[in-house]
Design a protein that fits this description.
The complex is a heterodimer of chains A (about 160) and B (about 400). Chain A is of the alpha+beta class and about 160 residues long. Helix content of chain A is about 30%, strand content about 20%. In chain A, the strands form 2 sheets. Chain A has a 4-stranded antiparallel beta sheet. In chain A, a hairpin with a 6-residue loop joins β2 and β3. In chain A, α2 crosses α3. Chain B is α/β, with parallel strands linked by helices and about 400 residues long. Chain B has 2 domains: about 140 residues, Alpha-Beta Complex (Aspartate Aminotransferase, domain 1), CATH 3.90.1150.10; about 220 residues, Type I PLP-dependent aspartate aminotransferase-like (Major domain) (Aspartate Aminotransferase, domain 2, 3-Layer(aba) Sandwich). In chain B, α5 runs parallel beside α11 and α12 runs parallel beside α14. The chains are: A alpha+beta (about 160), B alpha/beta (about 400). Bound molecules: pyridoxal-5'-phosphate. Pyridoxal-5'-phosphate binds next to α6 of chain B.
């Protein structure tokens, strides 16, 4: 992957100056490239990665396995895009294996998610079945450990 | 009775390490940001730690063969062949040691008769000089210079050769300069070794940490050199395994056997837990190593440009994780610079003179520390340099 994108993926808050210094490029070059990548949709957005427990996030998250009938001509794309557009859907992936789509859904509580699944998802034309799994605890999120212990203990000066 | 009189004259004659002395100052200064370390800020990759834990769960807690686990020696031979392009026999030409540190001590003790000379380049890692001396050898210094980006000139080595010279000791990429050796100069040194029938000891512990698409060249891979070279490498730096204390020496069977003799009576074998972890590192560690290398590379770019912007002229080091800026623009000596930076800005760097007199006028800044610490430290160094600017 592009080294600039790699760095941004590790820490999207780095400034163009900081990124430029690390990549031996000017801040202007970096800023222009980032703007271009935002425009062409390579960069979809920027988010903070939170520990839901510490952030007092009382919402629930569910992973829903969905089986669908592919459409003649459109394959899975039309139905998948239709599902993805719901605000409740955080991620939506086409999967290999026993089901077709994996849909990550966010809701305020169990009932909220259940309502979305029964009223919106299951009732969509082409959806054959759903299996809903609720998230219980987060150990690692987007590459960040939730309870990382510090690795410290280095001597301040060594040869 | 004075106990200090009981200490052998040779050990008494070894001065206290400049690093230790500075270490105590840093401890006394309290809450400092340290660019003074000589080890990675990363913890050993989890797959390596996990392999070590699993070996303990299985109860693998015994001694190993004096040479080290055969499985590890095979992995080492495979890794060295792929990376350095030299073939070693795992059964007779690979010795697993407690770090490159032990390998150095073994090699000097196995090879040196009293008074025989070892040529090495300064500024350099702190243990070469005392290790040679404590093995009854005579250390002979050749300076590497900023004008050469701290590469070693074969012509300078040639001038230092005498009838008593037995060994040429190399370390590229170099601690503390980050310098790398161009292939042509390496060939020049190889020619000298062959011409004068010398042994070469090469400490290539930083060889994975190279930047800007550089390739590593080992002197052991040059024609006719495997026969007279002890190639040393270890897991401390690239694999971030300093505390595992594991390294190795690859050399022809006669030399391996001689070092093994010293090793078996002084160390017996390297710790088995570390050896098992090292197999995992060699077999599955390429990904994490590359990830860390990239992080160091980005930091190097940042550090070097910031130091230069601060008026501390700094060449672009090709490897390792050290920047070695010149601090003469402040009018301070290396020691004064480090001491006052510590007092005034609470940032620790190591005076260049800790790595030999050739380090005067420089300090070593290790950039193996997290980005935030690095940014804060660089800001403080900038302020310090601006305040102390004389030229
Ligand atoms: C050049 C060099 N050689 C050897 C060592 C020691 O390595 P080990 O941890 O393998 O004993 C170091 C550690 O700082 C070093 O910088």
């Amino acid at each position: 992957m592009d080294p600039l994108l790699e760095l941004l993926q590790q820490d999207a808050r780095l400034s163009a100056e900081q990124l430029g210094a690390q990549l031996n490029r000017t801040a202007e070059e970096v800023a222009v490239e980032i703007a271009a990548k935002e425009r062409d949709g390579t960069i979809l957005g920027y988010q903070a990665v939170l520990d839901p427990e510490k952030a007092n996030d009382t919402g629930v998250l569910a992973l829903i396995e969905v089986k669908v009938t592919p459409e003649r001509g459109g394959g899975f794309d039309r139905i998948a895009e239709r599902i993805a557009r719901f605000d409740q859907v955080v991620s939506c992936w086409l999967m290999s294996g026993g089901h077709d789509l994996a849909v990550v859904v966010q809701g305020s509580d169990l009932r909220d998610v259940a309502r979305f699944v029964s009223e919106k998802l299951s009732s969509l034309e082409g959806v054959l079945s759903t299996a809903t799994h609720f998230q219980l605890k987060v150990y690692k999120q987007n590459g960040f450990l939730s309870h990382a212990s510090s690795t410290g203990g280095r001597l301040p000066v060594s040869p | 009775m004075s106990l200090s009189d009981k200490i052998s004259a040779r050990v008494q004659a070894v001065p206290r390490s400049g690093i230790r002395e500075f270490f105590e100052l840093v401890l006394a200064a309290g809450d400092v940001i340290s660019l003074g370390v000589g080890e990675p800020d990363f913890c050993s990759p989890w797959h390596i730690r996990e392999a070590a834990i699993f070996s303990l769960e299985k109860g693998q807690t015994s001694y190993t063969s004096n040479l080290g686990l055969l499985e590890l020696r095979k992995s080492i031979a495979k890794y060295v062949a792929a990376k350095f392009h030299v073939q070693y026999q795992p059964t007779t030409e690979v010795l697993v040691t407690v770090g490159v540190s032990e390998a150095l001590d073994l090699a000097f003790r196995a090879l040196l008769n009293p008074g025989e000379e070892v040529i090495y380049h300064e500024p350099c890692y702190v243990s070469y000089n005392p290790s040679i001396y404590m093995a009854y050898g005579t250390p002979v210094t050749v300076e590497t210079k900023i004008e050469d980006d701290f590469a070693l000139r074969a012509s300078d080595v040639e001038k230092a050769i005498t009838p008593k010279t037995k060994i040429i000791m190399l370390n590229f990429p170099t601690n503390p300069t980050g310098g790398v050796q161009p292939k042509a100069e390496l060939e020049g040194i190889a020619d000298l070794a062959k011409q004068h029938d010398l042994i070469v000891i090469t400490d290539e512990i930083y060889s994975e940490l190279l930047y800007d698409d550089r390739e590593h060249h080992s002197i052991a891979a040059l024609p006719g050199m495997k026969e007279r070279t002890i190639l040393m490498h270890g897991f401390s730096k690239a694999f971030a395994m300093t505390g595992f204390r594991l390294g190795y020496a690859c050399s022809p069977p006669e030399l391996t056997e001689a070092m093994m003799k010293v090793h078996q009576y002084s160390m017996l074998c390297a710790p088995i837990t570390a050896q098992i972890a090292a197999v995992e590192a060699l077999e599955n560690g390429a990904g994490p190593v590359e990830k860390m290398r990239k992080a160091y590379w980005h930091r190097r770019n940042l550090v070097v440009s910031e130091l230069n912007a601060a008026g501390l002229s700094c060449f672009q080091p090709g490897g390792a994780f050290y920047a070695f800026p010149e601090i003469r623009s402040t009018g301070l000596s290396s020691r004064e610079f480090a001491q006052r930076l510590l007092e005034e800005e609470k940032v620790a760097v190591v005076p260049g003179t800790a790595f030999g007199t050739a380090g005067e006028g420089f300090v070593r800044c290790c950039y193996a520390t997290d980005d935030q610490n690095l940014a804060t430290a660089l800001g403080r160094i900038k302020a310090f340099a601006a305040r102390h600017r004389v030229s």
